[in-house]
Write a structure and sequence with these properties.
Helix content is 6%, strand content 45%. It has 416 residues and is mainly beta. The longest helix is centred in the first third of the chain and has 14 residues, at 2-15.
Length: 416
């Protein structure tokens, strides 16, 4: 029955996904390191937290969009979480506490030694920061910490509504109380407010103060899903029982993105909702069918997804996910394919890119990149691309023509 629910849910979101709003591009990372966490600084530098189990460990940084990486320390630790404090310095959560990396001095400082792994670090209002496994709080931007509750590693994420109101999502630890708890006194005391038999991996708040919880498991039935608690309400609404949600980003325009995996951690991707979670589409063009374990957004509103479990890959959206920024930076232009459907060859027509250069990428409906090449001068001058079927199987495909300040996408159908 659980498998049937998952298949029905995935079929429903695939069936309404006539095109993908965003396209993911892979960022080169060292292929011999397993990554647990990702954070992006305001200047665009990318930080990855690594696993110690493969002999790597520590934190690596790229200052050139993945062109090269440098190791910056903590080689003896698995880094489960990364975040920045309000000063812009890096905080790393490990099994040996939180370390603070001062960007000016390039030095690490260990802050405390917890009972359990530090899975999440979440800045709040002013200089308040929350952290878990166990529930910790800092009131001075991460320099000193106070343990609030020992949870045996149950804390997985926080959502901060105001200076006083904070939510925490927890794992159902060996049948104990998990779910979501709330504090209305900035973390001094907590009350359980629902989903108590769920493994709540991630939380998010929209502009109305509605709380969303993404789950990877249920203590009795083994499903995940997304749940919603409207601001001021006491009852949770079930938005989906599937898939298993690992991470969540809600934009200023209240678009919800969730990283997920299905029945196995090796398959999954990103789903998106534009209507408060009432309906969902799969948004994995360029990424393919690969489980996502961490999803973050930078200050330019581009999403980063850390995908895969044995070998991890890092992806970034080619455009900001803000609809306003998309229209400013990469206006969509007209394109169409003739004939469509076709069996052997067709022509794609498009508007001339303003700077005279563009790339063509073709993706399967599950997001896997099938073909990629630069357009030649003749194609750009004539605003026409001849596309050959070659070894493409019959079915639906998405094509994207993109360049600087240029973005155009369409769908092609190949028949027998």
């Amino acid at each position: 029955m659980k498998k049937l629910i998952g298949i029905l849910f995935l079929f429903s979101i695939i069936s309404i996904n006539t095109y993908s709003q965003i396209v993911w591009e892979e960022i080169n990372t060292p292929n011999d390191i397993k990554n647990y966490s990702v954070a992006v600084a305001n200047n665009g530098d990318i930080y990855l937290g690594n696993s110690k189990s493969d002999g790597g460990g520590g934190v690596i940084r790229s200052t050139n969009n993945g062109g090269s990486w440098e190791f910056i320390g903590l080689e003896n630790y698995t880094v489960y979480s990364l975040s920045f404090n309000h000063e812009g310095n890096l905080l790393a959560g490990t099994s040996y506490g939180i370390f603070l990396y001062d960007l000016a001095s390039s030095e690490w400082d260990q802050k405390f030694l917890p009972v359990s792994n530090t899975i999440t670090i979440n800045p709040g209002f002013n200089n308040t920061i929350f952290a878990g496994g166990d529930l910790w709080r800092s009131s001075d931007d991460g320099y000193t910490w106070q343990e609030i509750i020992e949870t045996e590693g149950g804390v997985r994420d926080f959502a901060v509504l105001s200076q006083d109101t904070v939510y925490v999502g927890m794992k159902n630890y060996l049948g104990g109380i998990g779910g979501v708890s709330r504090s209305i006194d900035a973390g001094d005391t907590w009350e359980q407010i629902g989903l108590d038999v769920h493994y709540v991996a991630t939380l998010g708040l929209n502009s109305s103060g509605d709380l969303y919880a993404g789950c990877t498991d249920h203590h009795h039935y083994g499903y995940g899903g997304v749940f919603k608690l409207e601001h001021g309400a006491n009852t949770w609404d079930t938005l989906s029982f599937w898939p298993r949600i690992t991470s969540m980003v809600i934009t200023d325009e209240d678009i919800i993105y969730c990283g997920f995996y299905t029945t196995t951690q090796y398959q999954g991707g990103v789903i998106r909702s534009d209507d408060g979670g009432e309906s969902w589409v799969i948004d994995t063009t360029g990424m393919g069918n690969i489980g996502v374990k961490d999803l973050v957004m930078d200050n330019n509103e581009r999403l980063y997804a850390l995908a895969g479990y044995t070998n991890t890959n890092l992806y970034r959206t080619s455009l900001p996910v803000s609809l306003e920024h998309q229209s400013e930076l990469k206006p969509k232009t007209k394109t169409y394919c003739v004939p469509n459907p076709f069996s052997s060859r067709a022509k794609i027509y498009f508007d001339n890119p303003s700077n005279g250069s563009a790339d063509l990428n073709i993706y399967s409906l599950n997001g896997e990149k099938i073909r990629s090449r630069k357009l030649n001068t003749s194609e750009i001058d004539q605003q026409t691309i001849m596309i050959e079927r070659n070894n493409l199987k019959s079915g639906f495909y998405i094509y994207v023509i993109s360049g600087k300040n240029y973005y155009s996408t369409g769908k092609i159908v190949i028949t027998h």
